[in-house]
């Protein structure tokens, strides 16, 4: 059977409404306990700025992100000072998260103003607030997710029955992708419990490589660098998720902002976007230097940089870009509907790409579209 390929929704699919059902209690529970988050500046104080620099419309902006290769934009941009440079005297306070729900809860609670985050938490947060808490204002990365298996136990997709396959979290981007893939190949799995023809295990990215090495897992659908770590432990890439998407592109990380912060401080949001666009350009123009900078930042956040072979493989799987690939966000939401994690609701207005397109025009770059899901 050929792999299931999403239809290119920008041109062939009608707009479809989507809403969260099963995943909301988990989002609330994880977010309420602050799971997976910490301030990376020790005492949580904002980083200093150059003497004499004038702040924009606010003295500080609080930025969230993850210590993943798929979050290369904030990791490199903050490490190199490329984002801070655009903010003048407005200081940056950084917060690192391990889980999307924690970042969404921090945004809802007013603890952060903007965050790089995956598409599924963005959708979940938007729907949960009835479209009133966030906007997606830019893209960051595409790709960087794979199904890696123990080749002694899984030779091809027909060997998945009865196997234990991990994802980082119930309802996260890779979890939805795995559930959609299994359903498309005739496997039945209860989306909430993970029980079924294939046992879907939800486990933190940090723990998955250890479980895989112990033999507790037969495989995992995970982002980078976790996928590369599994390969370095003897795993085999059964499926690179890029194979399932037209043109090999799908949104992995985008940049969100609270609607109140966007309304009150558009100059700050525009400055962060300019720093993001210039960071992405620098990464693509200087890949070797970017890898070194990225690994330095990962080492600071996790306590240990990646081995060269893991870093090289992980970095090669990720495309750095400004386009949020809005059509693929809609497809991913529809996959969650089909998996039973989402019911019907309205995603219109989730994007506001006005400031991003302003920056792109200033940089002499092509503008991007919102696939009909932008503010009216």
Automatic annotation (TrEMBL):
Pfam family membership, one: NMT1_2
Any GO molecular function: ATPase-coupled transmembrane transporter activity
CC annotations in GO: periplasmic space; plasma membrane
Assigned keywords, A-Z: Cell inner membrane, Cell membrane, Membrane, Signal, Transport
Localization in the cell: Cell inner membrane; Periplasm
Range of residues in the leader sequence: none
Major localization listed first in the record, in broad terms: membrane
Keyword Cell membrane appears in the UniProt entry: yes
Keyword Signal belongs to the record: yes
InterPro entries cross-referenced by the UniProt entry: ABC_SsuA_sub-bd, NrtA/CpmA_ABC-bd_dom
PROSITE patterns to which the protein is assigned, alphabetical: PROKAR_LIPOPROTEIN
Stored PANTHER family: ALIPHATIC SULFONATES-BINDING PROTEIN-RELATED (PTHR30024), TAURINE-BINDING PERIPLASMIC PROTEIN (PTHR30024:SF47)
Recorded family membership: Belongs to the bacterial solute-binding protein SsuA/TauA family.
Protein name: Sulfate ABC transporter substrate-binding protein
């Amino acid at each position: 059977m050929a792999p299931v390929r999403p239809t290119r929704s920008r041109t062939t699919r009608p707009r479809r409404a989507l809403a969260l059902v099963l995943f909301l209690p988990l989002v609330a529970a994880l977010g309420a306990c602050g799971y997976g988050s910490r301030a990376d500046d020790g005492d949580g104080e904002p980083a200093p700025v150059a003497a004499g620099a004038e702040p924009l419309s606010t003295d500080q902006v609080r930025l969230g992100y993850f210590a993943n290769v798929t979050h290369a934009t904030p990791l490199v941009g903050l490490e190199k000072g490329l984002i801070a440079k655009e903010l003048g005297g407005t200081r940056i306070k950084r917060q690192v998260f391990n889980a999307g729900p924690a970042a969404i809860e921090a945004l809802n609670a007013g603890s952060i103003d903007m965050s790089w985050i995956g598409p599924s938490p963005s959708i979940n947060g938007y729907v949960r607030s009835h479209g009133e808490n966030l906007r997606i204002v830019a893209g960051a990365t595409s790709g960087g997710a794979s199904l890696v298996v123990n080749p002694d136990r899984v030779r091809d997709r027909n060997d998945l029955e009865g196997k234990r396959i991990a994802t980082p979290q119930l309802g996260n981007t890779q979890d939805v992708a795995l559930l959609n893939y299994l359903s498309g190949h005739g496997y039945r799995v209860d989306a909430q419990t993970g029980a079924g023809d294939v046992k879907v295990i939800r486990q933190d990215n940090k723990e998955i490589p250890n479980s895989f090495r112990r033999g507790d897992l037969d495989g995992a659908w995970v982002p980078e660098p976790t996928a590369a770590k599994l390969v370095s432990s003897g795993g085999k890439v059964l499926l690179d998720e890029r194979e399932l998407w037209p043109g090999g592109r799908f949104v992995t990380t985008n940049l969100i902002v609270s609607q109140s912060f966007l309304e009150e401080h558009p100059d700050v949001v525009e400055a962060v976007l300019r720093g993001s666009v210039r960071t992405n350009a620098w990464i693509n123009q200087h890949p070797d230097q970017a890898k070194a900078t990225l690994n330095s930042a990962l080492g600071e956040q996790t306590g240990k940089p990646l081995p060269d072979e893991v870093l090289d493989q992980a970095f090669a799987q990720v495309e750095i870009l400004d386009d949020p690939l809005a059509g693929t966000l809609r497809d991913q939401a529809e996959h969650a509907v089909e998996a039973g994690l989402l019911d019907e609701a309205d995603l219109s207005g989730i994007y506001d790409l006005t400031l991003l397109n302003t920056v792109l025009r200033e940089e002499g770059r092509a503008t991007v579209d919102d696939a009909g899901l932008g503010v009216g």
